[in-house]
Prior knowledge:
This protein has about 120 residues and is an alpha+beta fold. The chain has a single domain (about 20-110), classed as name from scop. About 40% of the residues lie in helices and about 15% in strands. It is built from four helices and four strands, in the order αβββαβαα. The chain has a four-stranded mixed β-sheet with strand order 3-2-1-4. A hairpin with an 8-residue loop joins β1 and β2. It starts with 19 loop residues before the first helix and ends in a 5-residue tail after the last helix.
Amino acid sequence: xxxxxxxRGGESAxxxxxxxxxxxxxxxxxxxxxxxxxxxxxxYLEPPTKDYQTTLLLIATTGEWTRRKIPNAAAGxxxxxxxxxxxxxxxxxxxxxxxxxxxxxxxxxxxxPNP
Length: 115
């Protein structure tokens, strides 16, 4: 039995991975849908960390938000420009209070009362 078997010519380790172009298309479609279906959406750039790459966070006036990975901050600014959204850097502005309020409300909805 071979534990570390080399893969030969084109064999994949699992299901076919989606192409980078398809991932970009899906990300853009999601961000466009989010920004078009909510009021007052703003974009926030989150810098890369040891564990996560750069992300773009869209936050509506209600505090509802969505986050997607992006290649770098320049790509995030370009996406925000394409969507017609103002863009902010979380390092300088922090997260808006409406996002924290929305998160707290969502936690309260899912929290079960103690018996």
